[in-house]
Amino acid sequence: MRLRPTHLRARLTFWYVSVLAALLALGWAGTCTLLFLQLRSQVDRFAIEEIETVEGLFYFDAAGALQMRENYHNHPESKEVIDRYVEVLSPEGAVLFRNEKLGRRPLGGAPFAGEGVGGYSQRTARLSDGTRLRLVSRVHSLDGRALLIRLAHSEEPLYAGLDELLLASLLVLPVVLLTAGVAGYVLAWRALKPIERMARHAEEITAERLDARLPDDDTDDELGQLARVFNETLARLERAFEQLRRFTSDASHELRTPLAMIRSVGEVGLQKDGSREEYRDIIGSMLEEVNRLSSLIDNLLTISRADSGHLQLHKAAVPVMALAREAAGLFEILMEEKSQRLTLDGDETAQAEGDRLFLRQALVNILHNAVKYSPVGETIALHVRRDDGRVLVEIQDHGPGIPAEDHQKVFDRFYRVDKARWRESGGAGLGLAIAKWAVEAHGGTLTLESKLGEGSSFRISLPGAGLDGPFPPAVPAHASGFT
What we know:
Elements: H1 8-55, E1 58-60, E2 66-68, E3 85-89, E4 95-98, E5 121-126, E6 132-142, E7 145-154, H2 156-203, H3 222-271, H4 276-308, E8 316-319, H5 320-329, H6 332-337, E9 341-346, E10 351-354, H7 356-373, E11 379-387, E12 390-396, H8 422-425, H9 431-441, E13 445-451, E14 455-463
């Protein structure tokens, strides 16, 4: 494990140690400050107690000079004042007494207004030699005369103790930070090890190995969740790539077939010297394949735009019965050729919220499928109704039916149940796929019920729109071929 600043674990360790050092410094500063204030508070309390003791030891001699009893050293309480600084001043600031420890050095300077009056005055002062003191003052009355008694303790022992604590901290702090740094680096390495393992596996994933997955160790932590999200993304990409490969392969095949037929028909026509009618037949065959090719390209373009999200839906309230009549009218001639009949009934007030063009395309594709596979002379039924805020459209035919295992596959692109007859029917297997996309793009569903030999029933469910009454049909109801 080589520590480099570019590694995330190294940066995590650096920030961890830096934050820890800052917190320790802050904690040390707070602790020292609190300790110093507590010790100074004790010094102030001791000084107050000693002033009360000293007050009883002062007296005026016969000459009027302020003195302290000679036997105060034998007084149990007075022994504590030996190492203290004592100064007594008159209200005017004249020095009346200084103890031997203080000598001739002033203690605190001239009195300030209100010093020691009505209680104790506490402050920090310095002697002329720089010694830091904690000074307590109080006004005391002796034989009718006011005295300002000042008693101070040296703060040097307090600062010396803090210096020792600082020195000890400076000696211990590097050891603590070094230990914390090593522990932090190990923890960061262990925490990031799964990510490194996932990175190594991710490097091995290519377009040809989209089936590979990242290890997630079946854990519920953040890393396990991250691995599962990536695996789900890879699964979607794998499905998308597989769908793209299949789509590309099928599209190439579908495009190649009509092009090959156009070429073969043209080559045959060039090889013989035919009559005008024969050339008309040849050109007609070529145009038929061109129409088939154009339809396939249009469908491919629609699917491509739908997949890319470039198709914009212009939603409005669409009268479904009128839309159904309009779609059915497109197959009037084809149904007449096959002697088929279409019955259309339902709720004239039913409206769906959607894009009229794409909903019409969905109905057209499903109706085309029904007309194409229904036998000659059969009846196709289209029923529209409302149900709990939705519009339901059912298209039922009496064709050969679809096996149960193919019910979902019929909506796949380029899928055909009867592959042997697809050229005869003229389809490329895209109609139902486009219909399903159009319905689902509007928040609806398209389902299939079918039995072999009995026919198929496609059911569309769409979100309903506001209902304002019946709408006039877009195509006259008496149009031939359906009722």
